[in-house]
Amino acid sequence: MKAETISIGTELLLGHITDTNAVWIAERLSEVGVDLYFRTTVGDNIGRIADAITHALTRADVILTTGGLGPTVDDVTREAVAQATNRDLVLDEELLAQIRARFAKWGREMSENNVKQAYIPRGAIPIENPVGTAPVFIVETEGKYVISLPGVPREMKHLMETRILPWLREKTGGEWIILSKTLRTCAIGESMVDAKIADLETSTNPTVGLLAHPGQTDVRVTAKAKTRAEAETLIAAMEAKVRERLGDWIYGEGSETVEEVVARLLAARNWRIAIAETNTAGKIAERLRARPEGARIVKSAMLLDNVTELSEQNAATIAEQLRNVAGADIGLAVLGTTNPAQNLYGEDTGQSVIAVATGTRTTRHAYSVGGINEQAQIWVSIRALDLVRRAAL
Amino acid sequence: MKAETISIGTELLLGHITDTNAVWIAERLSEVGVDLYFRTTVGDNIGRIADAITHALTRADVILTTGGLGPTVDDVTREAVAQATNRDLVLDEELLAQIRARFAKWGREMSENNVKQAYIPRGAIPIENPVGTAPVFIVETEGKYVISLPGVPREMKHLMETRILPWLREKTGGEWIILSKTLRTCAIGESMVDAKIADLETSTNPTVGLLAHPGQTDVRVTAKAKTRAEAETLIAAMEAKVRERLGDWIYGEGSETVEEVVARLLAARNWRIAIAETNTAGKIAERLRARPEGARIVKSAMLLDNVTELSEQNAATIAEQLRNVAGADIGLAVLGTTNPAQNLYGEDTGQSVIAVATGTRTTRHAYSVGGINEQAQIWVSIRALDLVRRAAL
For residue A22, which residues of chain B lie inside 8 Å, CB to CB? Predict the structure, then answer.
């Protein structure tokens, strides 16, 4: 069953308020086995809402609209649904009585404009809204369904949970389990990850998607099945293939950060690290110190000024000497250029050299990335932490 | 000039990441005089993206897509635009050279899949992307424009600011100023506000929209003009009409809260308030104490248990006596039912009585709203603060 959501409201379209409804609905739909393929956002205009619904009817089986069911002049969803489904609006006396009763109970004066909330498209199934005044309705047209929900989140969620989702669940034949697992890589560009797993990305169940972040790329595996066990099996099989391709480019899972993994590794070995930074300005030490193991694993951290020689040899020497002087188990030296004009996308992208000394071995790398802007600092920090990770493994 | 934005990405559609791009673009478009009428969100599928573009071409003059221009298997915007505009993709040698050069400068290995980023729809105008690898392109078809931008926010914004917005500004004939002013009402239902200003809500410039919040309703007036002065004049004229209709239902402007306004009023008069609460559980005193004037204006605050008589007379007596005992200038008593089963939308909506004693006058009101859940507490708190406001004016 294919779905489309239509979020109605000029404030939504123009970004004055955030559309939390569409996101919530998207997640709930997947749980009942309904595939969401389009989300449209449109303002409070009958013609445009009708256009959106009409077009949605050509490509979806169930259309859920949110918003525009209030009593004000700008609430025109009823009119738009009626127009799009070629019918008129009729006054439902029972809905009107329910609205009157609710106002009477609140001891509040019912406005004439609230009467319009009792109008629904001819032939629509009305569903009383026990947590607001706007009744919900479902219009069936040519074997498809247009379901109109209130925009107020708590009202929409209540009606979805108690009436609409159970109804959809019956139509799709049951509950589906959707599970996801994220594998996190770093120090490898997104295009390189894609090159290594391109064929896996064409899988339809589970699906494999990439999500790029500064300095790192996530691989998300998502499976859909009737039981949790089946979904986990599908994910595990695909995870094995992804790991086979990406090996130790994968540093962690879920939402683990590089520093989280490094801190855990160092603490497990009872290792303490001494760090010397230039262009990253102390941010690498900060990342490690912020971890729960922070105080245990960071022996010393310093900032170096005036490093003129940006060579792998110099970085290695500094890392080894720092390790000795500080009495640490592992030394990290990050020497990068500090010219404010340098940035990842400019004429001059800068340079960095990073060295990690463990006592038995010193690894060193040079990169054509440097500078002191945030993007470059993140890029270099993640590379440095990854080198520490590999040295500690 | 009418615009539509198409946000491309399965992660966006399913709500795994927030679509900040569409909101940012919406705001920038209004500044250059382009009207945004639809926003569509669609996943990484050539057929569905093409469907969205094709339909957008029937109702907009300029279509802006974001996302799907990367080098991975899931990046299919190029193919979709080509399909929707009935043309093939061609390799642009100059774009390819630019991409190669950028990788060489970074000292990073260019992947074979990056080559696909140099393909653009035949006849498209390529625009180099100096802050990423994905070139941007504009396709002109039947007098309309499809502009494809990267999904990475900083890249998209840079290209919009430096290339696309200036280009659009030329096409629409100049800069527009969009100004908004919000008038805040409380203690009056949304439908009542709408009933009083319904004809004003049909205005097209300025526009007048309602935004409902728990216990209060905003009226937002938005004007569009060539100069700031013109926009301000339009807003002022409409504001005058709205104020004429709503009078002192309007308690403030912008983002002012009721407690903010009340605290300012009390401090200006050097008044101190003594508060006794039941079902609102101290939240009214909390709201006032949190204001900068808090310590100066709240003389005393207490919670009452076991108030059995919920009458206006009892509330008035408590407010007056509390004022005397505490030596305050104004006394507020809020007596409400405390049954956990009561809620705004249930069988039993509860009751409250509120009284405000100023020494010269005691006002009192009864409401069919009570209970201890958050919604009811907000509703009653705002009513109480509004009564204090009116007493202090």
Answer: 15, 41
Name the average pLDDT for chain B: 92
Note which residues in 19-38 of chain B have CB less than 8 A from chain A. 22-24, 26-27, 30, 36-38
Q: Are A347 and B84 in contact (CB under 8 A)?
A: no
Q: What's the mean pLDDT when you consider all of chain A?
A: 92
d(CA A205, CA A150): 33
For residue A178, list its beta bridge partners: A224
Q: Region B158-173: what's the mean pLDDT? A: 89
| Cα of B386 to nearest chain A Cα, Å | 17
Question: What is the rounded distance in angstroms from the CA atom of residue A70 to the CA atom of residue B113?
Answer: 50
> What pLDDT shows up at residue A11?
86
- Give me the interface pTM, i.e. the ipTM: 0.71
What pTM, to 2 d.p., does this model score? 0.74
Per CB-CB distance under 8 Å, the chain B contacts of A63 are none
Task: Choose among B101, B64, B97: nearest CA to B81.
Answer: B64
| Cα distance between residue B87 and residue B267, in whole Å | 69
* Region of poorest pLDDT, from A110-114, A216-220, B269-273: A110-114
Q: What is the 3-state secondary structure (H, E, C) of chain A?
A: CEEEEEEECHHHHCCCCCCHHHHHHHHHHHHCCCEEEEEEEECCCHHHHHHHHHHHCCCCCEEEEECCCCCCCCCCHHHHHHHHCCCCEEECHHHHHHHHHHHHHHCCCCCHHHHHHHEEECCCEEECCCCCCCCEEEEEECCEEEEEECCCHHHHHHHHHHHHHHHHHHHHCCCCEEEEEEEEEECCCHHHHHHHHCCHHHCCCCEEEEEEECCEEEEEEEEEECCHHHHHHHHHHHHHHHHHHHHHHEEEECCCCHHHHHHHHHHHCCCCEEEEECCCCCHHHHHHHCCCCHHHHEEEEEECCCCCCCCHHHHHHHHHHHHHHHCCCEEEEEEECCCCCCCCCCCCCCCEEEEEECCCCEEEEEECCCCCCHHHHHHHHHHHHHHHHHHHC
**Mean pLDDT over residues A105-112, rounded?**
78
Does B113 contact A at CB distance below 8 Å?
yes
pLDDT per residue over B332-382, tens digit each?
999 999 998 888 777 788 999 999 999 999 999 999 899 999 889 999 999
Closest CA to A370 of A354, A387, A389, A391: A354
Tokens of A249: 């480019």
pLDDT tens digits for range A367-387: 989 999 988 999 999 999 999
Q: Which domains does chain A have, with CATH numbers?
A: 2-172 (3.40.980.10), 177-253 (3.30.70.2860), 258-392 (3.90.950.20)
C-alpha distance from B293 to closest chain A C-alpha (Å): 30
pLDDT at B191: 87
Residues of A in contact with B24 (CB under 8 A): 15
